[in-house]
Amino acid sequence: MLKFSLSRRTRAIALAVAIAGPALTGLPGLAAVQKTVPDSADAITLSFAPLVKKAAPAVVNIFTRKAVTRRVSPLVDDPFFRRFFGDTFQQRPRERVETSLGSGVIVEPDGLIVTNFHVITGADEIKVVLADRREFTATVLREDERSDLAVLKIDVGDTELPHIEIGDSNDLEVGDLVIAIGNPFGVGQTVTSGIVSGLARTNVGITDFNFFIQTDAAINPGNSGGALLRMDGKLAGVNTAIFSRSGGSQGIGFAVPGNMVRTVIAGAEETGRLLRPWLGADMQDVTAEIAEAIGLPRPTGALVSELHPDGPARRSGLRVGDIIVAVDGQRVDDMESLAFRIATSEIGAAADLSVMRPSGDVRIRLPLEAPPEIPAREETQLAGSQPMAGATVVNISPAVAEERGLSRLTTGVLIIDVARGSPAARLGFRPGDIVLRVNDTEIGSVVTLAQAVEARPDAWRLAIRRGGQRLTVTVPG
Asked: In percent, how much of the chain has pLDDT > 70?
């Protein structure tokens, strides 16, 4: 049934190309391409089967289990409730197990596997089931929420597993054939085919690095973390999300490009935090209004809006107002494209930037450096009888800003954790909040914040930044 479907599609494509041949030969790059009608039984029955047979054993199923404890009612944690009932009203917590299903790709013969972050996040147990039905418990080597990727490892001893080599996603073109392999809806390993519908999709809103391969190959729940294959058998990307109003495939699927996958895997094989190159500049998209104002024929590129005083962007010669239109010859359409190109480059190397200026186009050599840990994090959990007790805070350095997806120029103190049931939690403080001011003290460091909360004022006035908005809280002393 599958072969019949594929051969019919292949014949239709071949016939369409043969009919349109005279029209196509006039297009750039197509003059040398010879398209002919299949003239033999072998040509008519062309199939993806050999490619699938080689790649499918390297695509695995991933099962996760997570124990969740919940009270019947949250009222037992409410101070007002306890005032009337005290601790005599006891509830036994109820525990239930949540399970989820996804896919993964073996990228090294020793059992190194890449999947989506959202497939395994928060899991207490991760099981990997190979195509031959062998099961292994996986260890998490790297979780990278910003790219929605995770790297797992299974212990297979001296056995070499089938694996898929990661291709250069910069080589992909719209119209290239691709194959998606995964486990949709838990029905078992499934193969679908399609084409690359779009590249550099940056308005998807799935991860911090909004730069995706779009495909019409059917992707459904359970496909997350599976392989998107090129016709040379290499990994084009990792299937991540779909656009759907029904929950099923509607022909719009997205995959994290292979170059980002390679970057995260390389970071997992090293110790410490995943480091990405630091630009040291804030950017903004070139809108139609900006393009018209500066005389551009169309909106394109990423506009430098601010420079870090000690960042590589300033040292390389970039200026506020410059428009970066390409990195190493790869086009940059907007600030998301630029972030992806820099993030997938190698620290220690250099990138060639094509820059537009009013005075003329220039080429700039940007050193690719790790973001510095200056100032040091000084991770501290605040304590005592004050509103921020229970919050864990760090100084914001370029390295912290890069990890957390903040503006590269952000400074101050960041809340990274809030203890459950603490004063900070009851007042609504959240991880990701940036502390700006405590009463009349402007907060620039963890030390300043720790000193400010030691005071005993008649009332606390706290200012934070959350998601671009400034919020204030007033608490009686």
From this structure: 78
